[in-house]
Amino acid sequence: MTEPITSFRGDNFFLSNFFRREFDVPGLGRVRSAEHAYQALKTDDLEARTAVLQAELPGDAKRVGQGLPLMKGWEVGGRVAAMQEVLTAKFQDPELADLLFETGTASLVEGNEHHDNFWGDCTCGATTCADRGINMLGELLMMLRSTLDAVDDGPSANPSSSWEEMREWLIESLEDQPIGLEIGLGPKDVHVRFETLGVDLKDLDDESSNVEDEDLPEFVPTEAVCAQIYVLGKDTYLVRRSRRALRTIRFIDYEPTAVPMNTWLHDDPFDDCTDGYLYTGDRRLVAEAAVSWFRDNYDSPALADLGCFYEFTEELPKGDGAPIFNRWR
Fold first, then answer.
1. pTM for the structure as a whole
2. Cα 18 off chain centre by
3. Measured distance CA(224)–CA(273) in Å, rounded
4. Are strands 223-233 and 182-187 parallel, antiparallel or unpaired?
């Protein structure tokens, strides 16, 4: 298995947004670095944008950008879309595209010690950074890499690869969906439901039913790389990733403000989830987390062997002060 790249320094500095190489970005013109472009896209204020773009160094651009008024929707999908736009423009440069392509199948992780667990993975050792970072910059770079041809003319003339199409399909599919939607992804025909174990879900919903939690058959998961996505509320999603088949869960009582957002978690209550779960309000982050799990996992089935199912809950979440989870389903 290819060794991961865990630092965007030294020979891999070209992966960093602080790498100084001029390129053109639609709407901004010529920029001095990816950091200049990203910080400028934060705001609709043209005067503020100009101040960012005129900064001498990437670090200067970042400092100017930290105090800017943010454009609407920046924290909910906007920043990820902006970063994707910047990286796509940056790697139009044939030399940089070649360098990115030559990283092969290596996992790209923006390791840092400045507590950035959204764009990278902080390894400072502090308890607040103990959980694995989201590494969104690395994920976007790997997604972009999957669109490159094995030639020296930069991105493919057809930038929509199969993985890219899957990612865009997920982003679109999650828009304006009702609370309770579940999307399951994994090898075809691997989806554990209680019906297959001899229990009718209608019996579980029937208050007069004699079926109790202790009567449910033991869950014996199949070994399989898979993922689940749940719509928990307006702009609130849950992604679960595992190397074992995941059971269907119903979130009957749910209070959206009680969950930690944009942080990979690995503790209870998900005893069937081997590789962590994430709450977020960003559909692009949801899609990237799911697609990259299959694209970059050496145990994962090929894209052609993946299957998908979706299901809507019969009982919607309720109760602002209710526990996060009522019971497993």
1. 0.59
2. 23
3. 11
4. antiparallel
